[in-house]
Amino acid sequence: MNTEITVHVDGASRRLTVDTRTTLLDALRERLGVTSPKKGCDHGQCGACTVLSGGQRVLSCLTLAVTQDGAQVVTAEGLAAEAATADGQHVGSLHPVQQAFIDCDALQCGYCTPGQVVSAVGMLDEFARGWPSAVTRGTGAPRLDRAEVAERMSGNLCRCAAYVNIVPAVQQAAAASTARPSTGTGTGVAG
Ligand code: FES
Ligand code: FES
After folding, report:
1. pTM of the prediction?
2. N or C, fewer C-beta in 10 Å, the chain?
3. Ligand 1 mean position, distance from CA 160 (Å)
């Protein structure tokens, strides 16, 4: 059975007809040409397909496209903001998480990286909202130490084992978010 849906992907409204069994990942990659979400396992195990839907991270390989009718979906491609220069030219502006992954050399082959970056963006928002994790102790504001980052990013696997640099990248991005004005409740960062 086919049905027509409209999905807002990285700021663009995209209308398409999909088989109701089509996953969001296949719709993005095969139908819309949005290839930054990767198909690592297609079974909800690796996190390479992570996107934001309505601001929350979801595994697009486990999400049916029909459930995203009218949704706002953001992939790693959509995180970079476009800023216009005075002469009318457009220059890309990387998201702080993207910049942090570059600064910290937080990748090797790069296959998992779009999912890692999107997941980190969603995770930092969850953290700023005060959501606890399985390793959060006590009732005070948690610190984004190594254990917190590792637990909160545990849904994203890296076969190159670049974790030693991914964790500092997430912490750098968290610190950058804290330094910016009006970014929610603030983010405690600890080494
Ligand atoms: S491809 Fe979706 S979790 Fe691995
Ligand atoms: S950088 Fe290669 S899988 Fe993560």
Report:
1. 0.89
2. N
3. 16
